[in-house]
Design goal:
The chain is of the alpha/beta class. The chain is built from 14 helices and 25 strands. Helix 7 crosses helix 8 and helix 11 packs across helix 12. The structure holds adenosine-5'-triphosphate and magnesium ion.
Length: 566
């Protein structure tokens, strides 16, 4: 692998992590091997921040011919569940990455980790502390003042071994004792002040059941798990920079010159109008403030999938924001832009009328059904066409008609003409109202010479409207989503409960929309459609024949940008 990458054909435009990996390969470290890992804790569904980590971990391995493991970091049985394991697998595959047969669990290494702990106790490098976590925290000191050594720090090896074994046998209550590394209570790095290696947890584990009563802490588990798995580059986010010396300290208990995993950190993805903390997302789910982890308003991968975002749009967005060493807040508009851009290229164009107004074409035969041809995607010459029925009664959008229009209103008005997209030019002859003066329907005439291909088709009119046949259209419901939070940076509003910052208008349900029959027949969840002039939509998983439900993925234009300009 390393030999194949010559200086002269060194890849261009690498980000700083890729560059470090490349340099290690060039230097022949770890025998020229490259193995990364994506290490989710199965305590929630993956979100778009995880997608950034996934693109890095799998992406760099792909780029340089290495491999990437999927490792479930399942060291806390209290919060973890198989439901999360399954969803994580599905989401990574959906993004377009695969770990082959390299699916691992930190819990697979519990025996080796336990053995290492025993060895460290025997070498005088670890001790059992009988203090509570509060007492231990109170002795930690501050970055500028040394901590206080625990009164249990100089226990004999025999006593430590005996106590640790009895901790694991379940003899003591949770919180009664912990195993700590004996390092340095005066270290300028707070993480070196005798960090906790093991705590007692009596909750059954989703894989190992009740076998273990002691569970390793993140810092004692992660680096060693990397080592046991043969991971060469352990790429994570910036909050782990301060943990790196401890990562190296523990890993050195195992590694040698021929192979040693290396931790590299990049900046997290944070998005405007979004919370990304799994704890808060779980709270939204548990309290029913959203309809589940895959609610289309959630920043989860499953939510974005259900909403109609494509894997490519997410990956393009992540490419564009890039990887740096500085924390940033990325604009959700950039993600939405990437979604629009991809959907514009792939979505099938269809007609749907959100707020229908009936139009009777008085000079069109009553029972005639004429099929007109509609282009599936003007951006894609291979996308083909589909047929749409034209009949005497049609629906147009209520907003596309005005009785007393202002100047420059190019849609339909009394006496005015518009083109029906893909069909004829019609003229408004009469406005029919009910007793209260509400407009109930329009009477129009059509010009039979104006269908595509006919001589009159070149006739110019200012407006073109979308429409559906009143007889042939199918009723459907649209769910219109907006941002889940009202403020740009919910995490910064520390004086408020984040639930107070929710946008009360983040979901609007519009019933009785009218969609063309082709859409009704082809609406599978995940297939993207553009409702012309309205936005991008996909069928929801709750949708079924007779009860069609569409999620609006995104409006055609960024309405938030417009309101900002005002
Ligand atoms: P928590 O620690 O609160 O459980 P987490 O979001 O850190 O949540 P993990 O399951 O530990 O969840 O994350 C798995 C991997 O994803 C880690 O390597 C982590 O650094 C990365 N990751 C998590 N959140 C983000 C984010 N917002 N941007 C980029 N990477 C992230
Ligand atoms: Mg984490």
């Amino acid at each position: 692998m390393a030999e194949e990458i010559k200086e002269e054909n060194a890849p261009k435009g690498l980000n700083f992590v890729e560059q470090m990996v490349y340099d290690d390969l060039q230097a022949g470290k770890n025998g020229g091997r490259l193995n990364t890992r994506f290490p989710p804790e199965p305590n929630g569904y993956l979100h778009i921040g995880h997608a950034k980590a996934i693109c890095m971990d799998f992406g760099v391995a792909e780029k340089f011919g290495g491999t990437c493991n999927l490792r479930f970091d399942d060291t806390n049985p209290v919060k973890e569940d198989v439901e999360y394991v399954d969803s994580i697998r599905e989401d990574i595959h959906w993004l377009g990455f695969d770990w082959g047969d390299r699916e691992y669990y930190a819990s697979d290494y519990f025996p080796q980790l336990y053995d290492l702990a025993i060895r460290m106790i025997k070498e005088g490098k670890a001790y059992v502390d009988d203090q509570t976590s509060e007492e231990i925290a109170a002795q930690k000191g501050t970055p500028t003042t040394a901590g206080i050594e625990s009164p249990y720090r100089s226990r004999s090896v025999e006593e430590n071994l005996d106590l640790f074994e009895r901790m694991n046998a379940g003899e003591f209550d949770e919180g009664a004792r912990v195993l700590r590394a004996k390092i340095d209570m005066a270290s300028p790095n707070m993480h070196f002040r005798d960090p906790i290696m093991y705590r007692i947890i009596k909750h059954p584990h989703h894989r190992t059941g009740t076998k273990w009563k002691v569970y390793p802490m993140y810092d004692f588990a992660h680096g060693q798990s990397d080592y046991f798995e043969g991971v060469t580059h352990s790429i994570c986010t910036l909050e782990f920079v301060v943990h790196r010396p401890l990562y190296e300290y523990f890993v050195k208990e195992l590694a040698d010159d021929t192979y040693c995993p290396r931790q590299i950190e990049f900046n997290r993805l944070n998005l405007t109008y979004t919370v990304m903390s799994k704890r808060k997302l779980l709270q939204l789910v548990k309290e029913g403030l959203v309809a589940g982890w895959d609610d289309p308003r959630m920043p989860t991968i499953s939510g974005m999938r259900r909403r109609g975002f494509t894997p490519r749009s997410i990956r393009n967005f992540i490419d564009r924001i890039g990887y740096t060493k500085y924390e940033a807040l990325n604009s959700v508009s950039l993600l939405e832009h990437a979604v629009r851009e991809d959907l514009n290229a792939v979505a099938t164009r269809v007609m749907a009328v959100m707020n229908p107004l009936k139009v009777v074409i008085t000079n069109y035969p009553e029972d005639k059904v004429q099929m007109v041809e509609m282009e599936n995607n003007p951006e894609d010459s291979t996308a083909g066409t589909h047929q749409m029925p034209f009949t005497r009664e049609i629906y147009i959008e209520r907003d596309d008609f005005m009785e007393n229009p202002p100047k420059k209103f190019f849609r339909l008005a009394p006496g005015g003409e518009v083109r029906l997209k893909g069909a004829y030019i019609i003229k408004c002859e009469d406005v029919i109202k009910d007793a209260e003066g509400n407009i109930v329907e329009l009477h129009c005439t059509y010009d039979p010479d104006t269908l595509s291909g006919m001589p009159g088709s070149m006739r110019k009119v200012k407006g073109t409207l979308h429409w559906v046949s009143a007889d042939k259209a199918v009723d459907a419901t649209a769910r219109i989503y907006d941002r889940l939070f009202n403020v740009e940076n919910p995490a910064a509003e520390t004086d408020k409960d984040f639930r107070e910052l929710l946008n009360p208008d983040s979901l609007k349900v519009v019933e009785g929309i009218k969609v063309e029959p082709f859409l009704a027949e082809n609406a599978e969840p995940g297939r993207p459609f553009q409702f012309q002039r309205i936005g991008y939509f996909t069928a929801d998983k709750d949708s079924k024949p007779g009860l069609l439900i569409f999620n609006r993925t995104i409006a055609l234009k960024d309405s938030w940008e417009k309101t900002k300009d005002k």
